[in-house]
Amino acid sequence: MVELVPDGPVSDRDDFRRDQSNPDGSFDLNNVEPGKYTVLAIQGG
Questions:
Q1: Residue 44: CB atoms within 10 Å
Q2: Which residues touch 28 (CB under 8 Å, ≥6 apart)?
Q3: What are the CA-CA distances from residue 6 to residues 1, 3, 23, 24 (Å)?
Q4: The model's pTM
Q5: pLDDT (tens digit per residue) in 1-45
Q6: What letter would DSSP give residue 8?
């Protein structure tokens, strides 16, 4: 699983984006607002 977490205070959980990666490791994170984010990748999560 890949998750995009906004940096700084978060007022709306809808700002988070996540997707399950495909077997080839690719993923899509759609409708991301401009800003700074941290990307998390979790294996077996």
A1: 4
A2: 19
A3: 16, 10, 26, 26
A4: 0.69
A5: 999 999 987 767 788 999 999 999 899 999 998 889 999 998 875
A6: S
36: left (phi over 0), alpha (psi -120 to 50) or beta: beta
**CA 22 to chain CA centroid, nearest Å:** 15
Give the number of C-alpha atoms closer than 13 A to the C-alpha of residue 28, restricted to the C-beta side.
2
Structural domains in the chain (count): 1
For residue 13, the enclosing domain spans 2-41
- Distance separating alpha carbons of residues 45 and 12, to the nearest angstrom: 23
